[in-house]
Amino acid sequence: xxxxxxxxxAGGDGIAAGPIYVPRALPGERVRVHPGARxxxxxxxxxxxxxxxxxxxxxxxxxxxxxxxxGCAVQHWAxxxxxxxxxxxxxxxxxxxxxxxxxVAPTIATEPGHRxxxxxxxxxxxxxxxxxxxxxGSAEVLDLATCAVLDPRLVALLPPLRTMLASLSALKREGxxxxxxxxxxxxxxxxxxxPLQAGDRMxxxxxxxxxxxxxxxxxxxxxxxxxxxxxxxxxxALSGVAITPPPGAFLQASPQGEAAIIAAVLxxxxxKLKGRGRIADLHAGLGTLSIPLxxxxxxxxxxxxxxxxxxxxxxxxxxxxxxxxxxRDLDRQPLEPSELTGFAAVVLDxxxxxxPAQVPLLARSAVPLVVYVSCNPxxxxxxxxxxxxxxxxxxxxxxxxxxxxxxxxxxxxxxxx
Length: 417
What we know:
Blueprint (H helix, E strand, L loop, with lengths): L1 E3 L2 E2 L5 E3 L3 E3 L7 E10 L2 E11 L26 H19 L10 E2 L7 E9 L2 E7 L6 E3 L8 H15 L7 E9 L2 E8 L5 H14 L3 E6 L5 E5 L5 E3 L2 E3 L11 H14 L9 E5 L7 H4 L4 E6 L2 H14 L3 E5 L15 E6 L10 H6 L4 E6 L2 H13 L3 E9 L8 E7 L1
Helix pairs in contact: 1-8, 2-3
């Protein structure tokens, strides 16, 4: 049937009346679709033809996009339109939270080809090993030959990685690989479905040496990683401080995205912090924000991952940065209002699910400023409601498009009393 796409959904699908969800369709387009199964409150449909294209439709830069690669959702949409969509999503999320007039800045865009982390699915097939991303909405793995989003150094690692995996006995049927691009080169965490044999360790050591990997870690399934091969200390500089992350550690998607987030967080702080200038950094990770925040005051960093806490504490100690790192699961043991007394500001960068346990306590605390870094507008909207109900205001809100060509987005929101 022929339909007109009315708007873009949160996942990057075009939505027509019904609602009908159409991947790869754009607002304003008249399209021919093949109706599919029920989807939530509406119906899914497959795009068969674009009868009247949007003026914002552009040729996708990656050949895998038309093959259904799930890594990107909107390569066919002009960058300016993507930026406007993400700004509107942040404004809508804050409006739902109770801030209809929040001051939302224009989207800060980042360039493709700089993403420094790849989460790859691995499969052994009759033709050999494949390494790539899932087809959207499917368990099928698309073997990546190229990528418009990843740093070219990670793309260049894919062919030799496949060749090595073909000889790795620990990969029987399927596994995964996380590759972080550090200053010392790619850092690889392999997870396989069989034990690592002595021959596998030799294979990994040769692969690391040949391809310039300082470290390869390995785990069976969801187990704790161990070091399988290491030639040097893997390091990355966060705001000028060298840190050795644990295998598979979380990094911001790109250096440009990281810089934009840091700039927005620092801009939200007052020129002079009250009291003794203490700042709490919650869900601090490796210290991506803790370290630059330390130039503005003394930082107490809280993080649940033991490896990240140890890495941050060691790096801050070596560099003489005023950061104390504490291991604490803020989902199970959030900071109480009494524990927040004396902090001039709190910076909060929770995982995708947000911080439903911590935010209500922050809203009731005496802290004058909370800077919330979000990667999920839905979680931000839910958490933001607690601030609205407690009488806070949004002092600044900045959308950041570091997840290029995807429906994901980053935002930095300053909540003030």
